[in-house]
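May I ask you to comment on the folded chain given beneath this request?
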Amino acid sequence: MRPDLIRVVLVDDHQIVRAGLKAVLSTAKDITIVGEGGSGKDALTLAERVDPHVIVMDLSMPDMDGLTATRELQKANARRTPTPGEPITRRVLVLTMHTEDEHLVALLEAGAGGYLLKSVADRELVDAVRTVAAGDVYVQPTAARALARGLARRDGNAEERARFEKLTDREQVVLKMVAQGFTAPEIGEHLTISPKTVDTYKQRIGEKLGLSHRSDYVKFALKLGILKNDA
C-alpha cells in the first residue's frame, strides 16, 4: 500500500450509507478504505486494528454514539506512541443529518476534526477527508454559523454547562425530565427503574447542582437551552 494514501475507516449503522460513502471516496486516488463498522465501539476497535488516518463516523448510532466515540478516540490518541509509518493521531470526521448547535460545540471540544452534513457528502466528502487528514478543521459555512451561535451561548453559561456535563448520562436525563414536568413514576417507567431510584438520582443531582424544587430544575434547563421534549 502506498505510504501517501489517506487511510479511512467508515462507521455508520446503515450498511447502505457506508456503501454510498465508499463509492464517493473510491473516486479519490489518494484515499483508501481500510475498515468499516456500525457503531462507536466498532470505531474504537478498528482504530486499534487498522491505524486509520481519518474515521468518518455517523453522529447517531446505537451502542455508542459518535460524540462518545470521539471522546474515547481522543483518550486513546493521548495514550498511544505510534510506530514509524503509523498516523500520529486518528482524526474524526462526523457525519449527521442535521446541523445542531450543541452537537457542533460538543464535537469540536471532544476533538473532532470536522462536521459534515450527509446531504452534501456526495459533493464535499473527499475534500473534507483531505482537510481533516492534513490536521485542519472542516466545517461547512452553515455549520460554522450554528457553531458561532452555540459557542456564544456556551460562553455565557460556561460554569453551569461544566457542572451539567459532570453529571452522569442518566442524571442528565432525569434532570431534563424533571424540568419537563414528569413525575418520579413516569420517569421510572421511561428509564425502566423504580420511582425510588429516580428519587436517588434527584438527590444526587441536588447535591451536585444545588437544585431542590422543580422550578430550580426548569431555570437551570432553560439557561442551558436543554429544555426540549427529547428525553
Q: What stands out?
A: The mean pLDDT is 83. The chain has two domains: 6-149, 158-224.
